[in-house]
Amino acid sequence: MTTHTKTTAARPAAHGGVRTWFITGATSGIGLALARAAAERGDNVAALARRTDALAPLTETHGPRVLALAADVRSAEDLRTAVTTTLQAFGRIDVVANNAGYGLFGAVEESTDAQARDIFDTNVFGVLNVLRATLPVLRAQGGGHILQGSSYYGQTAHPGVGLLAATKYAVEGLTDALVGELAPLGVKVTVVEPGPTATAFLSNLDVADTLTDYDPTVRAIQKSIGELPASAFNSADRVATAVLAAVDADRPPLRLATGTTAVTEIRAALDARLAELDAWEAVSTAVDTPTTQSDQA
Ligand SMILES: NC(=O)c1ccc[n+]([C@@H]2O[C@H](COP(=O)([O-])OP(=O)(O)OC[C@H]3O[C@@H](n4cnc5c(N)ncnc54)[C@H](OP(=O)(O)O)[C@@H]3O)[C@@H](O)[C@H]2O)c1
Question: What is the CATH number of domain 16-284?
Answer without folding.
Answer: 3.40.50.720
